[in-house]
Amino acid sequence: MIYDIPGRERLDLRTIILDLNGTLSVGGKIPEGVAERLRDIKGLGFRALFLTGNTRNDADELAEELGIEWQLAKTAEDKRDIALELEPETCVAIGNGLIDLELMKVVQLGIVTLQSEGVHTQTWAAADIVIPTINDALDLFIDPQRLVATLRR
Question: Rounded mean pLDDT of 63-75?
């Protein structure tokens, strides 16, 4: 999707990269409304995927439930390297932990969510947007005027 943001360069965003634990899921559970929002986002033409070390061994099940793909990423460098293969200038990263810091540094737009598992302060500082929940983060792309209002100068 193309976003014309007053006072900024035009953004061409195509891929949303999500962290799993603490971002897409909280305490191992997907918050209500996330699956529907991901369907809407895919319907808008975005590619959505999550990156995880699969600590809980639930990535396959969650990917099926959410209708998106996942890739194994056990370190911050793994996440960064995956983003670098996905045209990072067209990527959004949504995360919360220190493991997401290197990812935030290489993508076009970084978003952290303030859910119950917390946010690492270095990742917070590297992000472009800080938002309360994963649903609020996904809503930025479903209702693009929210994104424009947040990023305009």
Answer: 95
